[in-house]
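Subgroup meeting minutes
Present: P.N., E.W., G.H.
Scribe: E.W.

1. P.N. recapped why we're keeping a running log of single-chain structure predictions: easier to compare across weeks, and new members can see raw inputs and outputs side by side.
2. G.H. added today's entry (398 aa).
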Amino acid sequence: MDDGAKMHLRDWLVAQVDSGRFEGLCWDDDGKTMFRIPWKHAAKKDYNQSEDAALFKAWAVYKGKYREGKDEANPSMWKTRLRCALNKSTEFQEVPERNQLDITEPYKVYRILRDGDQDTERGSSGPINEVQRRRLQQKLVCQENQDDSSPMSGETDNTSMDNPLREHMYCFSRGANTRKQSPSLSTLRIAFTESDCRMRVTLLYHGISVTRVVTSSPEGCFILQGSATVGNEEIYGRCTTQQISFPSPDRLPLSKHMRDAMTLLLGHLRKGVLLWVAPDGVFIKRFCQVRVYWSGPAAKHTDKPNKLDREKTFKLLDTQTFLTELHNFSHGNGPPPSYEIDLCFGEEYPDPKIAKTEKLIMARVVPLFAEELARRLNLEEGGKKRRTEVISTDGESL
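Output recorded in log:
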């Protein structure tokens, strides 16, 4: 086929499914509305490039991104190109609940969005905002730090994905003393209990609170769509990490196009983020495909986005810094310390141009040890002020 007759992605993929050329590429339903794409990771021991990367290579060749015999073979890049093309296209939608990624021959399932699937909605909400849908899709998962966008060793890949809690040795040590020295707050008569690992997590859809949970597990919590896989219980022991799942947006008082955009975003939040409180602060590790941005006490920027890289641990709040600022505030040497943390999924944040309430999916995280310390300080300071006022009044009346 010459360049002037190139097919679009949908027509090309349908032709490949119907051709039967690629092992594992097939229809997933009788109506031919969904199809399976083989999705074996290159780190698997039985990975065979000529078979498992055949479809991705074919797309790269078709688009002129790979020339046989001239360019160096790069299966990871081939896979990334097709994945990004699928995620950016308005003609496909991943169906996460039908994916099978933990079997011998893993695959993903995509739905073909026919013309009727994008009909405009009549009524008060007006037509579906296609520009907004495209804007969201382009921000989701086509990024440089995907787990399969660059070659990885089998040991590294399996360690991180089979047991995301392996480096999660942040729990308050049983007998070991790993705590840092904090400023003395004895004058405030505040007992700082580092064993308080609780967090209040609030999930918000377009500024509307849809879930509020107070966590209690020392191992922290996952915020995710579905449920987390945390490895072999016989090897690593029973996982007590709390799991907070995103609810369906279907019943929210929002327009259909807004709910559709949220549903699309939620489809890429299966592995979510892991949050925990340790003696030296509040930490997070991102596992989901969707980009996650944040603001909080330890954020580098307050007026532009702070991004969480995938599978890297970030400190969101530093206990030492918080206690120092609290100590200084109690002596009139600075503002009260900040301890609230905002997470934004799929959209850049902070964003001076767009209000927080306009973001599709956010989470607010409050470590309760910090909130309790701030509350006690305010109570004590309020008591001191009232006592001072009483003394002052008594003195005037004498």
